[in-house]
Amino acid sequence: MTVTTWATLAALGAFHGLNPAMGWLFAVARGLQERSRAVLLRSLLPIAAGHLASVGIVAALVTATRSVTASTTLAVVGGVLLVAFGLWRLLSQRHFRWAGMRLSAAQLAGWSFLMSSAHGAGLMLLPVLVTEPVPGGHPGHLSAAPVGALAGLAAAGVHTVAMLGTALVIAMLVYQVLGVGVLRRAWFNVDRLWAGVLVTAGLVTLIRA
Amino acid sequence: MTRWTPDPTFYPSPREAATAPAEKLAYVAAFDRTASRPDAIVVLDTDPDSPDYGRVVGWTDLPHLGDELHHFGWNACSSALCPTAPHPHVERRYLIVPGLRSSRIHVVDTQPDPRQPQVVKVIGPEELAERAGYSRPHTVHCGPDGIYLSALGGADGAEGPGGIAILDHTTFEVRGAWEADRGPQFLAYDVWWHLTQDVLVTSEWGTPSMIEDGIIGELLLGRRYGHAIHFWDLAKRRHVQRVDLGDAYQMPLELRPAHDPTKSYGFVGVVISVEDLSASIWLWHRDGDAWAVTKVIDIPAEPADPANLPDLLKPFGAVPPLVTDIDLSVDDRFLYVSCWGTGELRQYDVSDPMRPVQTGSVHLGGIVRRTAHPAAPDEALAGGPQMVEVSRDGKRVYVSNSLYGAWDDQFYPDGVGAWLAKLDVDVDAGGLTPDERFFPHGDEFRGLRVHQTRLQGGDASSDSYCFP
């Protein structure tokens, strides 16, 4: 993968990390509830793990599939999927439903997995992954799939590290310095922007295909 | 359509909410006891700089007759900022208005003109019955995953169990009954929660047949009305613990948990003790792994000449205080207690919730006293302070005077009238003073009785917070 690819994956990670719905706000809430910064910090790891699982599954699937099928087909299917999902996110008024805030680390990871998946976090990586040269340079062989999947997992890993780093910085900033009052002014509607990014990414993928 | 920034009336913490600007309007549920005219949502002007201050400035008739409006609530509130399922870009805009007698649920849009709300959706009793198995919808709370609506009765004429129905945040359709396992719970009334602790609390009144034609003396003296509160696992929707106050303590109604999400206590008001007609306030709190209740306020009955009492009370020769509503200020400092029988609103400093200290009292109406309002000193008032609502900054308290149609008629048989008063609070020292400029009453309500008040932008009983 090129430097640009890694940078793009990291930038998308930062974008996901920035979204309060992706977990940093939950970590802050847990820290405030227990009056403990350690609780905040401990909460971020399972949140990142859940995000990694959600993104990793999509990334591994995409890269493994790319290793065995024509990239145009994948790009077209992926692009259409992205546009459709993005439009649905944009137009649907439904929000993620969840009641219950006292979660174990495993439940927290599960929450994060569901939250990331419902937002299509992994899908957002699709345009980056489908334009990458196929690892090994021999597409069309089934034996290339595991190598492809590994590349996908590496991409998800880099993405998640960036996501975790961003979430950590913002969570600490809000917990230590700004206070949750900042939410009232600064909680920009990331969901709408997010949906727009999904649609754009889908269109870019389709145009390049 | 969603907003780009959070609804400005959402606050992450009670501390922030207490800095909210003063409400400019109040919405009041008004009902026609004779069911010959539609019930209404009435809009009051609460802006002291307005020429219409203290007057009715909007009136929205409901489409049917005989709903008996009682409690109502917002489609969304500060709980939208809760981190597990955040949706802060929705609007606090729709009032969810149940008909306690008709079981119809109305959705009332307060936009574009907040003074002229519009009924935009009516959910029939059949939808509530088919999807949730409930009737007689009552308390509305905006939850993280939907709108929680308590209901007193079962479906298709069944007396119970009462319980909680969940409405969709967006479409307001009834999604179903909330309970996965209700344990021994049968009676229902109020519901609220400790949101960040996954704890939901419910209280008990009576089944439809026990209340709809008036309070039934034999059932009361037989200690058959509710006398317990229930604790539930909010995430698993399971009953956890029933805490019995003792069967002498009939009708624990309004539940007021601390707004501070790190606190694990709350207050519940008990209407009457059958032993001495007193009313009481109980504190629920943790006791090891379990929940416990402790009586923290006792309000005795007042002796009275039977000649001045309604038939129901003549044998007792005393006026019961009848604590029918309580409200806790957003900063969890003051508890307001309505004594609807004796016609008094009391204010307690509950900074130490185990040891409340009375800091204020205002008399208005009352079964025997009939205290007039200073704005109309020659008019003896019927009814008493009943539904009480506190502004977010804690500086203003609104009380209305009707309890429930059939019960009004028993305790105030010569007519309960209709009035709503505003009291100013001394937030430093404590204390309450009636605002002489704010006393809508009598004909202003066009013959309807007034029940719950909701303040524009939220109030002390409308919002829950996920951050301390």
Automatic annotation (TrEMBL), chain A:
Keywords: Membrane, Transmembrane, Transmembrane helix. The chain crosses the membrane at residues 6-27, 39-62, 68-88, 108-130, 150-175. The keyword Transmembrane helix applies. This is Cell wall anchor protein. It comes from Micromonospora arborensis.
TrEMBL record, chain B:
InterPro entries: Se-bd (IPR008826), WD40/YVTN_repeat-like_dom_sf (IPR015943). Its EC number is 1.8.3.4. It catalyses: methanethiol + O2 + H2O = hydrogen sulfide + formaldehyde + H2O2 + H(+). It comes from the Bacteria. One of its GO terms (molecular function) is methanethiol oxidase activity. Pathway: Organosulfur degradation. Belongs to the selenium-binding protein family. This is Methanethiol oxidase. The lineage of its organism: Bacteria, Bacillati, Actinomycetota, Actinomycetes, Micromonosporales.
